[in-house]
Amino acid sequence: MRETNSTPGPRIWAVGALCRAVADTLDARFNPVAVRGEISGFSRASSGHCYFSLKDESGQLRCAMFRRAAGLLDFSPRDGDQVEVRGRLAVYEPRGDLQLVVESLRRAGQGALFEQFLQRKARLEAEGLFDQARKRALPTMPRAVGVVTSLGAAALHDVVTALRRRVPHIPVVLAPAAVQGANAPAELVRALQSLYTLEPAVDVILLVRGGGSIEDLWAFNDETLARTIVQSPVPVVSGVGHETDFTIADFCADLRAPTPTAAAELVSAPRDLWLGALDLLDERLGDALGTRLDVLGQRLDQAASRLGRPSNLVARQQLRLAHHAQRLHFAVLSRQERLAQVPRSIAVNLPAKFDRALVQRRERLERVALRLRLLDPALVLQRGYAWLTDADGRAVVSAKKLHAGDAVVARLADGEVDLTVTHGGGNNGNTSDAPSKISS
Known about the structure:
By secondary structure, the protein is of the alpha/beta class.
């Protein structure tokens, strides 16, 4: 909505339209965004949504973390925790508040490793190590399955249990290796290479370990390990960490599984293409529905925190209405009173204003007349000066223009005198610079 006004000025917005415009600008300029700060005022609503503020020494930002994202947390956030969050800046239109919709949250201190991970990922992707055209489909009925993990890892127990339950007739070949620590990358490379040369060969390899922090999973971001995975003669399934954990090994493998157990299930039972398509549609529908439910849930949370008894709200609105009616009544009376005073004011002030204007005009006329009298040439002639003109009546202002024998007229204060030039100042064959001489 835009109102027109004869006086230039800024655009007048409707409140909701301005909120939406600000939200669109934030989305285009900043999103997605990552922020580090200290948690303050953390609370979890009955809907499962979490609300808190991120602050540091110079600012504070309100945050909302919806139920789905909050369910993926691997720790319980508390006030005072230093965290890194990723999400999208938005405007909560019912209140016009700026807020950060948090999509992921983790403890602070992982930023440098994450930047290193992103740089290495970008470099290897540019080399084509993540090319989808290179990746192979999993065998429908593998004759043997290779497993690379630690002997003491819980992931080994999960994988073996799943394979025994689903395909107990398929042999499993274990190539043990450390999955954490400084020596882990080299051991993982040796374990994979041992399976590559194994006879009889395995048909698929599972590279697995349980979840952990980015430091715990760092061995699976090793560049040599990534190149070794790409060189595998058989498909490699990466099942490292939890569903939200991503490593370089995941992108290099032929298939990524969300968990070690899921990796075992992927190689022990076929998946139909239509079931995958159905899962994708279900996921998209679930995301859309979940997003809508999140927004409505947040609005419900806000309304529940503000809503009191309806009768109180009606009473407040009635009080405001009465206040505005009273102000309107007094404004009308005041306006009427001012309009009634206008004729009286004119009758009293008009004669005085007319007299003042007449006096000012008369004084101005006298000043102009005085200035004209001061400019009268006759006053100058009365001081002994004369005004010379030639025979044609033109003023003589230079002696060089007069010649011997020229007639001039000198006008004095009380009359005129005819004069003749006896010695001219002009060039009459005489180069003398002497002034002109005049006689009557």
